[in-house]
Design goal:
about 325 residues, 10 helices, two-stranded antiparallel ribbon, mainly alpha
Length: about 325
């Protein structure tokens, strides 16, 4: 008899009256908030403005959800389009099934659109978001726990996951909690990215590339533990090959970026800097104009006063002479 194990929830949804509260969706929402919160702090530290991260996330998150679902449906199409399956289930995202590869790819497209609208470089924004995305994944993986899915091989370790559901071909028993392994790995990835970013001053997308590379390393060995059905290519699961390809791409980008554009961006929101500078220049110009008008006013007053004094002096000097000249004329 097992002396310790991780229990599975009896159900993945709670009903608050007519409103269903699904654990999977709740974990995704928490992850999004964590990513935006941490990303905003890092963005401000890099010289960005408040609200920019959230504004771009409005584009990135929906694109990411669609991309994650598309990747899952395409790579596991038999779950939705094979005989006896209902294709409508492909739209039931709350039942689980998001591929991180598709989420990052299409989410990056949404982020690019948001960054372009704000006039900021996508790599700088991605660097600020990188550890937050890893933490979002750590939160999201607990949604698999609520759905009793994506577990590993059978095991007798004290931290084994107890699966009780028998739906969709599940066999009740004790398995490796791969959701927990990946969640903890993602927390470690976030800490590594934060440390490396401070230690080596990463910029121009290299913090994001480091996040991608380190995540792929963990995902590779975790995939080997999973027992859920998956497509295999040359004896390996499709996600293992994806992790290899994405890892190589991230490392190549990291190396080339470090050679081509070392250091970090000095300005992450150029339009914001220009706008602020224009305002300051305008204020200085207004101050100079006010000072100039005062000086000019004083100058004009002094000139008027000088002219008045000169005229008064001339009148006082010419007055007696004019009167003296006038008297002989009278006499004659």
């Amino acid at each position: 008899m097992e002396i310790a194990y991780i229990p599975s929830p009896s159900r993945g949804v709670l009903h608050l009256g007519p409103i269903p509260l699904r654990g999977y969706a709740f974990c995704i929402i928490i992850g999004v908030f964590v990513a935006v919160w941490l990303g905003n702090k890092r963005w401000l530290a890099r010289g960005g403005r408040p609200g920019t991260v959230a504004d771009i996330a409005v584009w990135a998150v929906p694109f990411g959800l669609v991309g994650g679902r598309l990747y899952h449906v395409i790579t596991d199409y038999e779950l939705y389009f094979s005989e006896g399956r209902d294709w409508v289930d492909a739209f039931k995202i709350w039942e689980g099934g998001l591929g991180i590869w598709g989420a990052i790819a299409l989410g990056a497209l949404g982020a690019w659109i948001g960054c372009r609208r704000r006039g900021i470089p996508l790599p700088a924004w991605a660097d600020a978001l990188a550890p937050g995305i890893a933490l979002a994944q750590a939160c999201g993986r607990w949604g698999n726990w609520f759905n009793q899915e994506l577990y590993g091989r059978e095991t007798t370790v004290p931290w084994a996951l107890h699966i009780t559901s028998s739906t969709d071909g599940r066999v009740p028993g004790y398995y490796h909690p791969t959701f927990l392994y990946e969640s903890l790995w993602c927390v470690g990835v976030a800490l590594v990215v934060i440390w490396a970013d401070r230690r080596f001053t990463l910029g121009h997308g290299r913090a994001f590339a480091l996040y991608v590379a380190t995540y792929c390393v963990g995902r590779f060995w975790i995939e080997y533990l999973r027992v859920d059905d998956a497509h295999h290519v040359l004896g390996m699961r499709l996600n293992n090959w994806t992790a290899i390809v994405v890892f190589i791409a991230a490392v190549v980008y990291f190396v080339l970026s470090a050679k081509k554009r070392p250091g970090r961006e000095e300005v992450v929101e150029p339009h914001a800097e220009v706008s602020d500078g224009s305002a300051e220049d305008g204020a200085e110009a207004d101050a100079d104009a006010v000072a100039g008008s005062d000086d000019k006013g004083d100058g004009e007053s002094a000139e008027v006063k000088a002219e008045a004094d000169t005229d008064g002096k001339a009148d006082s000097e010419d007055g007696p002479k004019a009167e003296a000249g006038a008297e002989p004329t009278k006499k004659s």
